[in-house]
Amino acid sequence: MAIREVLKMGDPRLLAVAQPVGEFGTPELENLLSDMRETMLSLNGAGLAAPQIGVGLRVVIFGSDENPRYPDAEPVPYTVLINPELAPIGEIQDEDWEGCLSVPGMRGLVPRYRELRYTGFDPAGSPIDRTVRDFHARVVQHEVDHLDGILYPRRIRDLRLFGFNDALFPGRELQDD
């Protein structure tokens, strides 16, 4: 297990479309997942995608109980999601503040579908099929965007609502993303 360096916006590897995982239950996949979890936890992240640590595979992890970066968010169960597919339920989108470990110290107001169904596989290759909403849905959409080479600033509708944490929220103690 190792804490890996998280790539930052501007690194071209973050813009690449990740490739599907072909084999499950391998030592390489287990090592990747272990490194991703350790890296995410060390940075108080709510999620992490493999491309953020330079691995171009369709693998995301997410989950949080109490998270100092998102103090008002409801808990999200820890999940490993491989080769995910998302299907919005309805057309309703909510805007909320997002940060990203690859865009440190900044936040933006990002629209996301309020409710969605996601499918994919766990590390052993067993299917996952969940319907989620609110913060859980937001986290999944954010992480899966990474697999398609999309960072959240591309989703922001009004760039006046994108900036550094201390400028957007003066006097509020937000942990650096």
Please provide a brief summary of the model.
With 177 residues, the protein is an alpha+beta fold.
Q: How are the SSEs ordered, and which strands pair?
A:
Layout: H1 27-42, E1 47-49, E2 59-64, E3 76-88, E4 93-100, E5 103-113, E6 115-121, E7 127-133, H2 134-147, E8 162-164, H3 165-168
Antiparallel strand pairs: 1-2, 2-3, 3-6, 4-5, 5-8, 6-7
Would you mind describing this structure in some detail?
Strands 1-2-3-6-7 form a 5-stranded antiparallel β-sheet, sandwiched between helices. Strands 4-5-8 form a 3-stranded antiparallel β-sheet. The model has no long low-confidence stretch (mean pLDDT 94). Helices cover 19% and strands 33% of the residues. The chain has 3 helices and 8 strands, in the order H-E-E-E-E-E-E-E-H-E-H. A hairpin with a 2-residue loop joins strand 4 (93-100) and strand 5 (103-113). The two termini are 22 Å apart. The chain is globular and about 45 Å long.
